[in-house]
Amino acid sequence: MSDKKTTGIWKVISASSMGTMIEWYDFYIFGSLAVVISTKFFPSDNPTAAFLSTLATFAAGFVVRPFGALFFGRLGDIIGRKYTFMVTLLLMGGATFLIGCIPSYETIGFMAPLLVLVLRLLQGLALGGEYGGAATYVAEHAPAGQKGYWTSWIQTTATVGLFISLMVILITKSTLSKEAFDEWGWRVPFWVSILMVLVSYMIRKNMHESPVFAKAKEEGKTSTNPLKESFGNKYNLKFVLLALFGATMGQGVVWYTGQFYAMNFLKTVMSVDSSQVDMLLGIALILGTPFFIFFGWLSDKVGRKYIMMGGMLIAILLYRPIYKQMYTTTDLTLKTEIVENTKVVPSIKEIDITKTDSIYTTTKTYTDGTAVEEIKTKHFDAGKIMLDDKGKDKIETKITKSINSSDKWMLVFLVFIQVIFVTMVYGPIAAFLVEMFPVKIRYTSMSLPYHVGNGIFGGLLPAISTYFVTSAKDAGNPEFYLEGLWYPIGIAAVCFVIGMIYIDKKINTLHD
């Protein structure tokens, strides 16, 4: 490739990637702050229900992504790639900023979760139109035979967006006191996004339309009804369904298991300190991100199919051993407590004239350097302890583990392995989808299976898996923490079988 062409495509990638990265940042700060958000926008009398409600709201943004893919995909195939994902960028940025402005549940009651849900749905619609536009735009600038390599740069944006969201949260936490962050500082990452969106908008505004689409439009070969041609045509619909059930469905659950489920698992099931989780996840993401490029490049040489299928198969086989090792790494029953260092500090918090909380904070240290803070809260009403929905004393226990250096690096390694699975299934997927569909309906046709696979099957993973874990724990299952993995394992297994049987290597050059 000539220097001029190389410079040109790097400009395209830089502009497309920056905007897409910011949209993923906007989308993921909600998930990164799920534990905090559950206490702000939902009733606080049942923390588990509040957290599950937050995950459900998080998932709602994924569920509507296919509708965004249809709406914006149609626009992208009719009026152009550039202008469509300019709109999605502004819609996403505005919704994110406004989430950071919504008053808490204590202030406006049920209007708080309702407004969050509405804005979350707008985020999902916007993201449904963004990815397909960016991936198509880059692919249509890339030389033949190199689409895997060049589009893999777009594939890094989701992970980089998540990484930046974690870093902004960490910086905000380290700048503010714990009380200030809990009170209002958690809103800062939402507010910061509007500045990044405006910068990205100015960069994207100067971009030119995709040359492939511009040529098709000039020759009058664009579609007047992309939805009908994409899904009403049996031949094309066959490829849409194959893309969904043979690739993106499995790719979606592997992606969200390796990054979001791992994060929620560390914070809620293993009770590791939130800042430590963000840091170790950030390290694993930095180490793993270059492999998106590697597997995208490799897919140009050996084909997309076996790299993606290989990533799914290895994930299916190794998820349970990996998560068992993660849980065992910080299992307090396997550590030796320094009993003489244990401290219990009681305190009383008056909520109103009739209600009080009796709080007992216990700090423990262990011989390997692990430190644990255990907070037990008893709720009293008119001098009597309140009862839970099972008629027992309402006592809430919150455990926070500060892990030692050895455990931290073990967890970094275990999350890094999962990120490698992600890079295998996700690195080649954009080129794979672009090559399956003709130019005039490409934006619409590739966007729908991608966002159904990721938005529905992947986006529902945190809520469904957390529910499985909670149910197994209530049932007394000693390995309750592994039950949530059956969902991604099952979905990936079905996708692997379909992909291996029906995906033909010729798809790589179908519309190259």
TrEMBL record:
In this protein, which residues make up the domain named Major facilitator superfamily (MFS) profile? 12-507
Q: Keywords of this protein's UniProt record, alphabetized?
A: Cell membrane, Membrane, Transmembrane, Transmembrane helix, Transport
Q: Which GO terms describe its cellular component?
A: plasma membrane
Where does this chain mainly localize? membrane
Record-annotated membrane-spanning stretches: 21-42, 48-71, 83-105, 111-129, 150-172, 184-203, 239-259, 279-299, 306-323, 409-434, 446-465, 485-503
Molecular functions per Gene Ontology = transmembrane transporter activity
Q: Which InterPro entries match?
A: MFS_dom (IPR020846), MFS_sugar_transport-like (IPR005828), MFS_trans_sf (IPR036259), Sugar_transporter_CS (IPR005829)
SUPFAM superfamilies named among the record's database cross-references: MFS general substrate transporter
Cellular compartment(s): Cell membrane
Membrane topology is: Multi-pass membrane protein
Task: Determine if Cell cycle is one of this entry's keywords.
Answer: no
**PANTHER family hit by this protein:** MAJOR FACILITATOR SUPERFAMILY TRANSPORTER (PTHR43045:SF7), SHIKIMATE TRANSPORTER (PTHR43045)
Protein's recorded name: Predicted arabinose efflux permease, MFS family
Record organism: Flavobacterium terrigena
